[in-house]
Amino acid sequence: MKSNYAGLRNKIREVYLVEPNDLGIPLLTSLYRKVNRYFKKMPFVIVIPLAFILAITLYILFGYLVVRLASMLQYGF
């Protein structure tokens, strides 16, 4: 019984062991950590305005094609 508990406890520790993110290039890793810090604290403050800006930009650049693509995707799914 004791060995089963010890084995289970070790497996649970392995599940919670997460290595830090490393992108291989120190510049990219530091940039990723700086950007990711804001997404962890307030994701919607960043994501929603960026989504609106991207949608408006796509509509200005491609116009009616974006509307047709959205309609086609809506009916396809």
Task: Give structural notes.
Keywords: Membrane, Transmembrane, Transmembrane helix. The protein is mostly helical. The chain has two domains: about 1-40, no CATH class; about 40-75. Helices cover about 80% and strands about 0% of the residues. The protein has four helices and no strands. Helix 2 (about 25-40) crosses helix 3 (about 45-60). It is elongated. The mean pLDDT is about 80.
Mind sketching the topology for me?
Elements: H1 2-15, H2 26-41, H3 43-62, H4 64-76
Helix pairs in contact: 2-3
| Low-confidence sequence ranges | none
Helix content: over 70%
Principal-axis shape: elongated
Distance between termini?
52 Å
The biggest beta sheet reads: none
Oligomer: single chain
Q: Give the averaged pLDDT, no decimals.
A: 82
Keywords: Membrane, Transmembrane, Transmembrane helix
